[in-house]
Amino acid sequence: MGAIRRTFLWSSSVFCFAICQAAMAGTESFETGQIWTFRGASPASSRVIIGAVDNFDRENQPIISISITNAPIPNAGKELQTVAHLPVAANVLRESVIELEGAGPVPEGFGGGYSRWRQAYDSKKAGYFTIPVKEIVDILRTQLGQQPAAN
Fold first, then answer.
1. Helix, strand counts (H, E) of the chain
2. Inter-residue contact 71 to 133 (CB < 8 Å)
3. E strands in the chain
């Protein structure tokens, strides 16, 4: 077998493997406790942790409640490091996450935030995010980082 043919076959195999891995990541189901890296994380050590997966009859996809860790967000003169609860559409979260790193505990504060959101959602007074995780963090940084004008 010629060197060019071997190189072509080897390259094709690697390409097919990469495509299969990407497809599997795109269809993997979310489960409580999973820890994921995400696109545009700043700092790169920021992570998404799955806190709850809800399948509602009125939605065409699951709503995934997440926490974001190691995401410095200015908040009234101190930095918030963990966003305890954010509800996100499963398809948007799937596009945001990159790699499943493992599993761990849900951060402190998740339960209270989830409870308040769930009660409001059940009363049709709350929704969920349909934008990428990076954009959610950017919005929080902009909104919480603004200090009220001094009088």
1. 4, 7
2. no
3. 34-38, 47-54, 63-69, 73-75, 78-80, 83-89, 97-103
Q: Is 110 in contact with 51 (CB distance < 8 Å)?
A: yes
Q: Which two tokens stand for residue 108?
A: 């402190």
2, 73, 122, 128 from 59: Cα distances, Å: 55, 31, 12, 11
Please confirm whether the linkage preceding 148 is cis (ω < 30° from 0): no
**Which band of pLDDT confidence, cut at 50, 70 and 90, is reported for residue 4?**
low
Would you state the pLDDT for residue 66?
A: 98
- Say which residue the tokens 């060197």 belong to: 3
* pTM, rounded to two decimals: 0.77
Q: What is the DSSP string of 102-135?
A: EE-PPPTTHHHHHHHHHHHHHTT----B-S-HHH
Please write the tens of the pLDDT for every residue from 33-60.
999 999 999 999 999 999 999 999 889 9
HSE-CB of 139 using CA atoms within 13 angstroms: 8
pLDDT tens, 86-110?
A: 999 999 999 999 999 999 999 999 9
Structure token pair of residue 139:
């919005």
**Statement: residue 8 has pLDDT above 50:** no
Kindly give, in sequence order, each residue whose CB lies less than 8 Å from that of residue 3, ignoring residues fewer than 6 positions away: none
